[in-house]
Specification:
Layout: E1 2-8, E2 17-20, E3 33-36, E4 39-42, E5 44-49, H1 55-70, H2 91-94, E6 98-106, E7 109-117, E8 122-130, E9 135-142, E10 149-150, H3 154-164, H4 173-179, H5 183-194, E11 196-199, H6 203-215, H7 221-232, E12 239-246, H8 253-260, E13 270-281, E14 287-293, H9 299-317, E15 320-323, H10 332-343, E16 353-357, E17 374-379, E18 386-390, H11 402-407
Parallel strand pairs: 5-16, 5-17, 11-15, 15-16
Antiparallel strand pairs: 1-2, 1-6, 3-4, 6-7, 7-8, 8-9, 9-10, 12-13, 13-14, 17-18
Helix pairs in contact: 4-5, 6-9, 7-9
GO molecular function: ATP binding; ATP hydrolysis activity
Protein name: ATPase AAA-type core domain-containing protein
Pfam family, one: AAA_21
Length: 425
Amino acid sequence: MLLQFSVENFRSFKERTVLSLEGSSDKNLPNNVVGFDKGKILKVAVVFGANAAGKSNLFLALAAAIITVKRSDARQVGEPLFSIVPYLFDNKSANKPTSFEFVFVAEGKKYVYGYSATNQKICTEYLYVYNSSRPTTIFERDESAEEKYTFTNQGIKAKLKPLTERNTENKLFLATATAWNAEETKIPMMWIANSINTYDSNYENALNIIGDMFENDTDNSLRRFTNNILKEADINICDYELESRDVPLEGIPSILLAKQHGTVPEILGKEYKITAKHIIEDEKGNKTIFPLGMQLESLGTQKLFFMSPIIKKAFETGETVFIDEFDKSIHPMLVCYLVGLFNNPEVNMKNAQLIISTHAMSLLNLNDLRRDQIYFVEKDRKTGVSELYSLDEFSPRTREDVRKAYLLGRYGSVPDLGMGDGLWD
């Protein structure tokens, strides 16, 4: 499970910014947390903020951090790191490395992994594991130092130091060592590569990403899950059909663009088409099934199709899922329902995590979410720098109307709107 993700000097996040899923001492809503060691881990975090405040940049930061790890071993010598985009509104930051750090629990142990990079090379990198209350250094890397790699444990050094010769300045040592079967790096590498995923709200991109999940649904478990979600969402669809065809890679320009910017895990050389089946009843009570192409369905229905395999996979594997603009085209009550599934231990039995950006005011209440599960992003209008902070910092009372307080600007992160009198100036 993810404990913490931090980023520095990426797009609008100039300063070090931390998204923490470590629960506070708050004793409310115990089902919303998982116990680990002596602390708690949040199952859900929601991020609010005005348009252009930087919410999507937080998700792009995570996507960039992951994609750099996943593609590292395949990167050719001299190949740039397309995903790295620093804060560009001052010359100093524009020429500084971007930094990412993950703190997470994998196979019962706590790990800390981070690196800094420009779009040309890796600058620093480190990996620590907690075998006890104190961290053990697996490796540290500093490309500017005389000795670029250091190992505090001699046994680990004997195994990993020879592999440093196989690494290049534009590759992460975590990925290189794992590719050469280093046991010390395998668990954290596999967790970052497979157990944390980001998704945007673009249906066209989503269909290509999750199309193979539908196609590989040999036991129809995904079909049943999707149909059940649609039924519980009060949508009149009884079933669906999936068609796929192979297409040249250049036939999917949106996926190529998405890959270049590091927002999808793979390029899929297939095109998928989903047809929904509706049961329609005439005036005599006769029922007939009518097909309707998914592109003709409402955006909300499309969004549910997009999310159903993602949610199911998360519940089955216990992975961490980031979804940007989660509430786009979805009714506020349905948003609460979907988020509530992740906080429900009877549904989310493997402790999957959901992190979303949203404008859904229905989530701004302390009956469904804890104070430490609600975040805000606010951008400084003068500098263009985004700041992330938690509702927990304001210590609202449990019975406080936090939705009203937010709309009144008590927590910041709301747009400063005009009155319209300057439109014709």
